[in-house]
Amino acid sequence: MRVPGDADLERRYGAANYAPLPITLVRGEGCYVEDVQGRRYLDLMSAYSALNHGHAHPRIVAAAIDQMQRLSVCSRAFHAAPLGPFLAQACEVTGMAKALPMNSGAEAVETALKAARKWACQYKGLADGEAEIIVMDGNFHGRTISIISFSSEPSYRRGFAPLTGGFVQVPFGDIAALTAAISERTAAVLVEPIQGEAGIRLPPPGWLKAVRELCTRQHVLLLVDEIQTGLGRTGAWLACDHEQVRPDGLMLGKALGGGLLPVSLFLAHEELMSVFTPGDHGSTFGGNPLAARVGLEALHVLQEEHLVDRARQHGAMLLSALQSLHHPGLREVRGRGLFIGMEFDPARVSARQFCELLLAEGALSKDTHGSVARICPPLVINEAEVMEAVACIERALAALP
Ligand SMILES: *Cc1c(COP(=O)(O)O)cnc(C)c1O
Fold it and tell me: Structure pTM?
């Protein structure tokens, strides 16, 4: 009898909430991963931007090991190094005043929702329970009950009711619809500057700036979720920077963990963060010394290795190379920086099928919403690796029916 492999055990004992491609990974370094058979693949997924620094970045791994040998977890019952320097650096690079550490992205978003509701009680005079938060259709902000309550994807919601109220949905990129939706009960507008999960959807140029101006005029908070778009992915520190927009509340996660750990932050201006007082919000692991050290090192590496500039340059190179490829089933290639999507005509080609062919050609990606393949390599990718990615994609397109 054959000894069951890792994937067999995962299928036998794991919940079926994912449908992985048929590959079992054992190692990763830079832009490459290796499977159990010792085959190497170019990673064009970057774990949804959690791997902006690539796999096993030596500086971040070294900082993590050093910190693990000192102090990893101690709870927020005590001050512990190096949380202060981490929060200071995160505020410095984002231009925000204060930061509150959590673990997963969803927790950072939950923190933002709580902050906005409490701010509306304290600064807009709304009664507790009255505040509304406006969200975009096609949004993705995580998987907690409150967050999926305002998802426009039925499969994320179905069967999980009762859902959390207090959310109003408007079309993404439509400033007139947003203007019409704002009322005296509106506490905040929550947006992704580019929608990742929805298929690398870019809003019309100027939309985010117009949202900022509208929110300021109406005394409504602008909450920007940069968990996937932030920390260099789009060729700027934050995707908001492309339009010189400063949010009132900002969520970071994914790449903040340097490719090693879940680390997230909710950042805000003084007034918004002032709603939190001792005891009203927290997390056992949020801001632990290991996470803080890894997050701090992740921010230093982004800066010192110029990963933001590299994402802009290599992203432009990759986007134009992919836009020159043709297949009758390929509708559009779009993106910003190293945040690129290839949209297929679902009547002719499924993006899943394309990703399976890409796997056979030596590169890993994942489809989103059936019709879009993500092409989002780690930001450490070099020119030769960009050309290799293009060659793999070209061969996979040629293998499509
Ligand atoms: C991934 C993601 C989240 C949720 O992060 P988790 O760490 O999976 O909880 C939230 N918002 C956006 C935009 C994301 O891409």
Answer: 0.98
